[in-house]
Amino acid sequence: MTLSNSQIGLRGELGAIFQQAISSAFPDVTETVLLMPCGQARFGDYQCNNAMGLFGKLKGKEGAPKAPRDVANALIAALPANELVSETSLAGPGFINIKVSRPHVAKRIGDMLKEGISTWAPKLTCKRAVIDFSSPNVAKEMHVGHLRSTIIGDTISRTLEFCGVETVRLNHIGDWGTQFGMLIQNMAELRPEGLGDDGGRDEDVSDLMQLYRASKKRFDEDEAFKTRAREAVTRLQSGDELYLKAWKRICAASRKEFQAIYDRLGVVVTERGESFYNPMLRDTVEELLERGIAERSDGAVCIFLEGYKVPLIIQKSDGGFGYASTDMAAIKHRLFTEKADWIIVVTDAGQAPHFEQIFGAARKAGWLTDDIAKVSHVPFGLVLGEDGKRIKTRSGDLVRLVELLDEAKARCVENITARKLETNEEVIPEEIEAAGAIMGYGAVKYADLKNHRTTDYKFSFDQMLSLQGNTAVYLLYAHARISGIGRKSGKDVAALAATHTINLTHPKEEDLALHICKFPEAIEDMLEDLAPSKLTSFLYDLSEKFNSFYVDCKVIGSEEEDSRLLLVEATAVIMRQCFEILGITPLYKI
Ligand code: ARG
């Protein structure tokens, strides 16, 4: 449903060619092409693995081939005329090794340089996607889990935007619920004048964690306060002006904290918190009840789904609405009002059963079908401190995310300065400050994205800021070095593609060029699994292949200078597009 049939990229086009061979050699069977990178690079670039399966399907039929190798030979003979395949060979029981034409690879890259990287964006059937990510909770700590959601969700959004999908980036913040009763009540009781007009006094919301902790303590320990806090919820929900005002002030204070993170990370997300759906809850529950999708059970309104021990509770027995009620209203709104054809929700893995049930319930209600939309819950694992436990500051407190990001930046500023002093380069504080921010925030993002999102990872400044290995710091330096080659040549490398072509002569050139052409595949694979690590691996391999090319192939001053400069430029273009998707700003000079 995500990828359109008109595939671009080597793998997609080769797949189409082999698919055609399958249907023309064996018109009576339907079989989907199986194409993958060749297991052993010296035998080919890709391999087609259909012969064995086809053999099984054809067995017993009249004139059926005698062995899978015969099937493979028939496929090769049936290949339509094309300029991609330069050589095929058989291996094992019937694998077809495919070598891609080098002149074709060279031309492909030249075309991309002329026409722009957007021509290499995979085509998707999806037109409009809602991405629900970040989504911290008001007056509670925004923790590293929310940071992960922010980083992963932003990258997914950027990938879709690169593919031409219209995105609706939603911050489903927890800005409604019973916790506001105790917060507001506590605020009211701590002020001599009650909640009455505050003249803009903000001290009681300036430290929300503190307010939250104090209120929670009273709520847990003091029965009478608990009762007053519950009454406060009712007053708030019935629209009491003073209580609403207090609620808004708490939200505004939280928003400021969240925004500080988004600003540093360069993340754009539209706030549409739980309160937004509040006016829709009653009708949503009523509709589901009336249509028999939901039923009353022990006073609560529940949706029972097969395979789940506990039902989805969309209205509690005391009449209150909760997390699931809001998510039912949200999915309906996203499907019918937002008209999204892909809904993606990025949260910690612990919420997977909740979303399975929400999606299941939406299907049961008939709101969601495969024709209407695709839905994906994107779970992720934990971020741990270096000791393998929850990350804390040296004093043992939970880390504040802003401080974490500031430290990453400070360390980078320090490292860059030290390097410059070592090499006797000029130290321009503003430049280093800017580069340090790019590097520090980029490093935090990259360290997160490079792990498959479902694995837990350890947050380590030393690792993520290392100049060696698969880190943003290494890659940013690599990109700056690569960009420097073009500058040193004194030529307008970006314009060179209009007048010159690439000619691949050295095996290291071929290797690099082929990898460059696999960029669309990396994007496809990342979208398939919604796993940004697929793209970081591709990016890291690209820089490795570039290094090994650059060691063996002289660029400036060589006979092949123009062709190789184009290959250098193509590497830089792809690197920059990867950075863009990962939300990292490229540095041209450090
Ligand atoms: N606020 C929730 C949390 O902190 C995440 C919300 C995710 N989105 C949603 N539609 N429920 O875990």
UniProtKB/TrEMBL annotation:
Subcellular locations according to the entry: Cytoplasm
Keywords from the named record: Aminoacyl-tRNA synthetase, ATP-binding, Cytoplasm, Ligase, Nucleotide-binding, Protein biosynthesis
Its EC number(s): 6.1.1.19
Top EC group: ligase
Domain named Arginyl tRNA synthetase N-terminal: residues: 12-100
Transmembrane portions of the chain: none
This protein's GO CC annotations: cytoplasm
Cross-referenced PROSITE patterns: AA_TRNA_LIGASE_I (PS00178)
NCBIfam families the record matches: argS (TIGR00456)
Subunit structure as annotated in this protein's UniProt entry: Monomer.
HAMAP family reported in the protein's UniProt record: Arg_tRNA_synth
Family stated for the protein in its record: Belongs to the class-I aminoacyl-tRNA synthetase family.
Protein name in the entry: arginine--tRNA ligase
